[in-house]
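protien #1 (seq + structre)
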Amino acid sequence: MKRFHHDPVCGVRLTKGKAYYFEVVDDEEYLLCCPECQTKFIDKKRFYIKELKRKYEKNKNITKNRI
């Protein structure tokens, strides 16, 4: 299972122990920091997942190009 270590709504970095809430979607775990982010994530789940993955891929490509 893949775990994202940033809240997909606000971007804060956290661990599962510090997360207010977490949810598994398509065998990937999403950590959320507070009730507000939980509500936003539940309301627009696919949007936030898409944005988080887009940012992840962009950062991965930037890091790859630096090597």
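ok now protien #2
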Amino acid sequence: MREKVMMAYLKGKSAVENAFHRFTSEEKGASDMVAVIVLIVIVIAAAVIFREQLIGAVEAVFSKLSDFVS
């Protein structure tokens, strides 16, 4: 039984390693990763620029929510 579990583990590990290798070696995957990183940077920049407005909006929502619950 232990041998079957070990073989299943090794087969799964090998499949994950192969998938990761294919993902990192494909050109399309690399360009998609760059696109995701650019989007994350844009979201972070927008959050920094509109920080005060976001804080005010979140505080207003939580205030209304706490009033509703009480």
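Residues 2-69 form one domain.
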